[in-house]
Design a protein that fits this description.
With about 475 residues, the chain is mainly beta. It contains three helices and 34 strands. It is globular and about 60 Å long.
């Protein structure tokens, strides 16, 4: 059974209707923001070691984390101010720390493929760099996992990294950092597919004849959390009517794209991957691929006790949610299915105004069922990674990179050390949406523009750990 067949049989939230009417956008108030404990300054230390995570009183798991917790501490850096990141590795295996979304040299980016030295077992290493650009970034391990589900992105090694700029996007009554996470992964060939951005979107790359070979094993999970607590186990987010709450969302999963909804409320999206969008817009449902971030504010104007969580029942009931509790409300948290989840980057963009770059690069994505023994493998232009001589960039040149996704999955594609401007996706042209990770639709096509202004080796890969490990990556280099 394919993942999307399972989802359609389950019929999760497919025919739901909105609970309340449209919510009007309003000016943002001048009020102090609050957030989780964080580390600020120019000198940071991350210690890699075993940790326990109490998802619920009867569900405690053992993993690897930073500074005794998972997620790790929120790191606050000033844009343009050099920092030292000191990493101490108390484990028996080599490790790396990737500062995702930063424009920094390849030797400190945290990827072995790019030439960043590993942090040796029971050793340490210090990295010095100047953080830029401002916005919501994050940090995580970048080691390979292959068939070991206790390594790499399947562990608890992740955390928010905020680069503070000179301009404050606005003051809010409350501010929260929420990482969506899955735990206790396992291999299976029967997976629920909830990764489609829009099931009605065009599929220009769908092959005329589909590959009917039996699929290989991929990675799934039935246990989820937001930060370190499963739904119902942690403290609720307590709000008052009329408050405006700023949320920083991160999909820290290594496995799957995720949706999120809050009944009766709209998410007013102001930034994607930490970069302000040209056209802020209100939506019912968010979609985040692994590695993506969304900054959105919500007007709290529907008193009650609500579940903010995944629209898919098995995922939400498995823990992917958090309770939003209004003052003086004491009742069982309520969940109401949202409209059919759809996600469209282009509503946050603007019409194209510049001609397309003259330099073009094309990447064709394909999946080979059981191409790696019992596992699927993935190819870019007919070959598995690293492609270290195929994509050569000329410094200072603007490129249009087009993805041809000929697989039955929607893939979150991440380009290290550069920023991508979406030019076309879902068959729609757009501009101004700047990201570092873009989910390419199932059997879809997407084009992004970027400037080759970060000399050095640059890793490009699917941010689903299993896909990256089994071939879905390429190494771009400068001439």
């Amino acid at each position: 059974m394919q993942r999307r067949d399972f989802l359609r049989m389950a019929g999760l939230a497919a025919s739901a209707t909105p609970l309340f009417g449209q919510q009007m956008q309003m000016p943002m108030p001048a009020a102090p923001a609050v957030g989780m404990p964080s580390l600020s300054g120019t000198d940071f230390t991350l210690r890699i070691a075993p940790v326990t995570v109490e998802l619920a009183p009867n569900r405690i798991i053992s993993t690897i984390g930073y500074n005794g917790t998972s997620p790790g501490p929120l790191l606050r850096m000033k844009e343009g101010v050099p920092v030292n990141l000191n990493v101490i590795n108390d484990t028996d295996t080599p490790e790396t720390v990737h500062c995702h979304g930063l424009l920094i040299p390849s030797d400190v980016d945290g990827s072995e493929e790019e030439g960043t030295p590993v942090v040796p077992p029971h050793g340490s290493r210090s990295y010095r760099f100047t953080p830029t650009p401002a916005g919501t970034r994050w940090y995580h391990t970048h080691t390979m996992s292959m068939d070991d589900l206790h390594r790499g992105g399947y562990t608890g090694m992740f955390g928010f990294l905020i680069v503070e700029g000179k301009d404050n996007p606005g003051n809010y009554d409350q501010e929260h950092y929420l990482a969506l996470r899955d735990w206790e992964p396992y291999f299976t060939s029967q997976m629920m597919d909830n990764d489609d951005l829009d099931p009605t979107a065009p599929r220009p790359e769908k092959p005329a004849v589909l590959d009917t070979r039996p699929p290989g094993l991929e990675v799934a999970s039935d246990t989820f959390s937001i930060n370190d607590k499963s739904l119902g186990a942690g403290e609720p987010i307590r709000v008052r009517p009329g408050e405006r709450v700023l949320f920083h969302f991160l999909n820290a999963s290594a496995i799957e794209n995720r949706h999120l909804s809050l009944p009766g409320h709209k998410f007013n999206v102001i930034a994607l991957d930490g970069n302000p969008v040209p056209t802020p817009a209100a939506v019912d449902v968010l979609m985040l691929g692994p590695g993506e971030r969304i900054d959105a504010w919500v007007v709290m104007n529907q008193p009650g006790v609500w579940v903010m969580g995944a629209p898919e029942d098995p995922v939400r009931e498995g823990g992917l949610g958090i309770v939003i509790e209004y003052a003086n409300q004491r009742r069982t948290p309520q969940w109401v299915p949202p409209p059919q989840p759809r996600w469209d980057y282009t509503i946050f963009g603007k019409p194209p105004s510049q001609p397309a770059p003259a330099e073009r690069l094309d990447m064709v994505f394909e999946k080979i069922p059981r191409g790696a023994g019992k596992f699927n493998s993935f190819t870019v232009n007919g070959k598995e990674g690293p492609h270290d001589r195929e994509f050569v960039l000329k410094q200072g040149t603007r490129y249009r990179l087009t993805f041809h996704n000929r697989t039955d999955d929607a893939h979150p594609m991440h380009l290290h050390r550069h920023q991508l401007e979406i030019a076309e996706i879902y068959g729609k042209a757009t501009s101004g949406v700047i990201k570092d990770t873009v989910v390419v639709p199932t059997y879809g096509r997407a084009s992004v523009d970027f400037t080759a202004d970060q000399p050095g080796l640059t890793l490009f890969h699917c941010h689903i750990q299993h896909h990256m490990d089994y071939g879905f990556k390429a190494l771009l280099r400068y001439a």
